[in-house]
């Protein structure tokens, strides 16, 4: 399907996309039709489980993430030469298959495409991680990050240790 030039959509997001090993990317992907598919505990926990497994991110390391009722944000460190679109496609496919199996429901889970932004080397990584996990606060879902169950960060474990 051709997308009209006046509405470039996801094609414009792909233009100039470069997957650079060693780079950290802020990524966002959205539920199909912006449906609040992850608002219920069962669906959210299934998707969180699939998205947080190391096998979901071959050639990369998931540093932090948050699952919102209708979208997902994450910071991903690209370690191997794998294309971002392939990596995100694997993650979305794995989480979608898990959710469809758990809910015995068919149909698309994620919208096609995703948004990414490479962090500049001078950007503070912890500030970017705080931005990701604070999404439920900014959205008014909770008053404290600790009250929102659908997020994780590698720095949480480091502080506990």
From TrEMBL:
Residues 20-135 form the Transposase IS200-like domain. InterPro entries: RAYT_transposase (IPR052715), Transposase_17 (IPR002686), Transposase_17_sf (IPR036515). GO terms for biological process: DNA transposition. GO terms for molecular function: sequence-specific DNA binding; transposase activity. Pfam families: Y1_Tnp. Transmembrane segments: none annotated. Signal peptide: none annotated. NCBIfam families: REP_Tyr_transpos (NF047646). This is Transposase.
